[in-house]
Amino acid sequence: MSAQRKRTVVLISGRGSNMTALIAAASDPAFPAEIVGVISDKADAAGLGVAKARGIATQVISRAGHGSKQAHDAAIDAALAAFNAEIVALAGYMRILTPGFVQKWQGRMINIHPALLPAFKGLDTHARALAAGIRIHGCTVHFVTPEMDDGPIIAQAAVPVMVGDNADTLAARVLKAEHQLYPLALGLVAEGKARMAAGRTVLAHFADDADNATSVVMAPDPLREEADLEHLARITP
Questions:
Q1: What is the distance between the alpha carbons of residues 137 and 105, in angstroms, rounded to a whole number?
Q2: Distance CA 125, CA 141 (A)
Q3: What tens digit of pLDDT does each residue of 163-187 get?
Q4: Which of 101, 102, 110, 165 is CA-nearest to residue 139?
Q5: What residues act catalytically?
Q6: What is the tally of structural domains in the chain?
Q7: Phi/psi of residue 134, nearest 5 degrees
Q8: Upper half-sphere CA count for residue 102 (Cβ side, 13 Å)
């Protein structure tokens, strides 16, 4: 089984909480992807320490050490080759990748975005979602294409926007969903059950959970008041 696991490298810029979720999922030998390396563009990214503590090889490739974005991406590409990477997972990687690099890895590079794409591309998704007044929010894993947050969607998870939410409380709720969704999506890609073809995601060779068809996220979903039996008695003929 281990020889068939897809060699996956995670790109981070910060705390790496989604990276940590992927490492945890891949610690199961039955998981179809193996996290073989973590690359950060920032030397002080907290996720580097987390990866090292779990025995994952790490590398810092900072933008400052390269004369152009193309040179920076070429250095990342060389590091990926050294890792013998088969899949690249972006987990809070905060740089826009060059089109040439993206095209080279297209169909093998995935990203997680804290919104239900195609809504709320870019930054500050939770504050923008609250400002728009939406009642359902969530996260998306998608294949990476040259246009930001625009690639074919692999998987999504939805959460309710609660009355009284602010950007921080909403972000925390979405993050919990992200930590479940990203391992699921990486597993689908690693097993070939989700693949990119002709600009779309093709899902095949797996059975969806029938219970999924009946699940509903509603918001607001008010607490049901306990029935006032005396009141019912007065109005019941």
A1: 29
A2: 15
A3: 999 999 999 999 999 999 999 999 9
A4: 110
A5: 113
A6: 2
A7: -70, 155
A8: 18
Do 97 and 121 sit in the same domain of this protein?
no
Residues 138 and 69 in one domain: no
pLDDT for 73 equals: 97
Binding-site residue ranges: 16-18, 69, 94-97, 111
44-97 residue pLDDT tens: 999 999 999 999 999 999 999 899 999 999 999 999 999 999 999 999 999 999
| CA-based nearest residue to 114, from 142, 81, 77 | 142
Q: Are residues 165 and 73 both part of a single domain?
A: no
pLDDT above 50: residue 2: no
Residues within the annotated binding site for (6R)-10-formyltetrahydrofolate? 69, 94-97, 111
Domain around 165: 112-206
Where residue 122 sits, what CATH number does that domain have? 3.40.50.170
